[in-house]
Amino acid sequence: MSERKNVGKSLLEELPGIVAAGKRQAAHILEQLEGRNRVTLQTRELVVPSKDTSARDLFRQPLQAGGDIAADVDQPSRLIYGDNLLAMAALLAGDEDTPSLRGKIDLIYIDPPFDSKADYRSQITLPGTTIDQKPTVLEQFAYSDTWADGTASYLAMITPRLVLMRELLADTGSIFVHLDWHVGHYVKIVLDEIFGRDNFSNDIIWWYYNKMQGNINTFPRNHDFIMFYRKSKKFTFNPQKEKRDKPIRQIKRVWSSEKKAIVNAKDENGKVIYVDSTHRTVDDVWRLSMLQPADKTENLRFNTQKPETLLERIISATTNEGDLVADFFIGSGTTAAVAERLGRKWVASDLGKPAAMVTRKRLIDQDAKPFLYQAIGDYQVEQARSTLGRSFRVGDLAKVVLDLFGALPLPPEDNVNGSLGRLPNTRTLVMADSPSRLTTVSTLRRAQGYRDSKLGGFDKVIVLGWNFSAGIGQDIAALNDDRLEVLVIPPDLLDRLKKKGADKLSREVRFSSLQYLDAGVLHRKQVSDGEELAVDLRNYVLLSPEAINLDDKNRDALQKVMNEQPLALIEYWAVDPDYDGEVFRSVWQDYRGNTENDDDPLRVVTTAHLELPVKDGARRVCVRAVDVFGFESEVVVDDVEVTR
């Protein structure tokens, strides 16, 4: 990979232009906050941590069915899956349920990727095999954009994000940017420009003393550095102490009577007082060990995971209990986990699905307060605006999708919003849905109507969708129509269009089938002090393995598990016993690795037993599952009555 496309200029010469472009990009985002095209967040789950155990007090915090989020939890913390640039735009904009966080965050810590050659693939252990998964296509494109031109494109990525972070910070807030020798010295210049040189506080050396050996030509590299900036002169800071290896004898120091200076303390006879000092004030060199492989309690085996002691020091030093902490490159969720433990609220965001999944499980495992799991509301729309312009027309995008699928557009008079086409030399209709809405059962029924009425009728209709209602698999099964097929438009399609253009993509694009969860209610019955609800997982059909970034060997291993043990693919599942059709409130969860009930780290339990308060009338029960690759599916069971 070449370091820069513009080989005629040095990076130092390019830097002013990079920073100016990043500031313009951020300014454009800020201008959009009040408009109808503002970015929004979609709440996927209100997580009320109550992991599956053998205890019978799982429903510890009854929630009001049909009530809003604010009635259930006062300003909950938030875990956001998606591009952090869009996440920050949504946080700045706010919405009808949550106010803008502009100027509200007390501390931001970020640990962005800083090695262009790092390998972020993950290993997924399944019964009898280990799948070696490369990053998802969305993650790959984000990462390749970050390093396309080496350090220059990395700075182009980080600059607008730092500008938005400054907008989110409270006037008394601070930001810590964790880097190493790869890009840190360049980012320091960017931080000086955005936050001001006078607001630089410390260049903290994290010395992890692992006794690493250098090669014959270098000293061992045993530290990272963390740049600490404040937003203004008035900022929160709590000096930290650490225990000495052994007490030392030193002069006691106190304020003078006039409070003008620190002076030596003396007794009534005028003798200097000596004390045994057991602690020292923490300076800017932090001697904290990295996570060790033998650490079975904290080490989640997540690449780039940082120790909790590091975040505990940062959060304790620059926030107080009840303050708001944010991390926009969340990784394994260490910032959120420590903030939760120290009584702070938090916002955590990451583009990586594994990061979001690991963080959610980690917070459930530590019995966190209820928190929201959110995603970018209209991710594909935002990407379409980026690729096709802010005023793009849905019909233009539908034409591109139909063309990539190999379909010819219907005549204009029969073509609804440009969304309909037909496969050549067949009686097959193709409908490309809009990225600005969910593909639901109503969409499918509309497609069936087009199939039967357009141009004298077709033998079959194929629906191509971007975003699907979580229970769409259940809806497809209920329609039981072998003349209807539903396929997923690749989520990275717009990124790929932007990079390569439609002509070069035509042979590369794969439209995959949907995943499908089969679950049901075993019973709902009265018990002495309430109700018991039992919910059963029955089957899981993964979407087409071709959509997952695997080589042939790993895909064959996955196919074997799919055929023999489909429920072993479930990473996490949760139950909402009073689903209102809008916000999924999970009050029972189980996940792989939770062995308190079944002693099996590779499988979830397949039956949930919930102890609930008595409710008159029927229940609407929602079951949601996430597989090991991060794909979600859902089943809703209506009209569940009490059995005697």
UniProtKB/TrEMBL annotation:
PROSITE patterns: N6_MTASE. Residues 105-352 form the DNA methylase N-4/N-6 domain. Transmembrane segments: none annotated. It comes from the Bacteria. Keywords: Methyltransferase, S-adenosyl-L-methionine, Transferase. Belongs to the N(4)/N(6)-methyltransferase family. This is Site-specific DNA-methyltransferase. It comes from Micromonospora gifhornensis. The lineage of its organism: Bacteria, Bacillati, Actinomycetota, Actinomycetes, Micromonosporales.
